[in-house]
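User: Can you predict the 3D structure for this chain?
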Amino acid sequence: MLKNNTLPVLYSLRNCPYAMRARIAIFYAQQRVILRDVVLSNKPKAMLAASPKGTVPVLVLPNNKTEEKSQVIDESLAVMLWALTENDPDDLLQKYDPDNLTAMLKLITTFDSEFKTCLEAYKCAKRYHENTIKACRQACEVYIQQLELRLSQHGFLMSAQPSLTDIALLPYIRQFARVERQWYLQSPYPKLKQWLNNYLQSPMFTQVMAKNPLWQENNQSLYFVATK
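Assistant: Here is the predicted structure, written as structure tokens:
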């Protein structure tokens, strides 16, 4: 068995969309990591020592002999790219066309900034029963319609094959679908609903979303590794 200090350590939060997509990428990359589930109201000292900004995911890579300290990756997209650069058996980075990664990152960046802002406003409008909820939903739909159009042309967001974009946007669309559940089920986005449902019903999602005990100092290590 590998010693703990030879494995990356991933600080995660089960329902955080950023942590979720990091775990999804690690799953598809078949990377073995030590998983530490945390709550942000009680951030572990070890996590804060690695990344003082105190958000998840935080991936701490094991020391190399040439390095004085561990490398830390604390942005979700960077964690995804690290994992898939290490191993990408499903070619989610679509290396057969170098221009694809540029296009994928551009779309992901749009959703990380513009759509995420609209989504947070939509969630707040529902939570506080604001009369702006319809307008907030319609602002989100501008982006949802773009995805529906893409999925009407091929089975996944970039092409007929799954990609980095699909797994990066999946947690956002899951959140969108849960805000007004009944409205969503009747919404005019059949391709998007099928795409989302296929992921949510997959063995991958079951493993990625497994509920684990919260990590505490001196706890026994919990390993996260894909079992396809």
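The chain has nine helices and five strands. The first strand starts at residue 9 and ends at 12.
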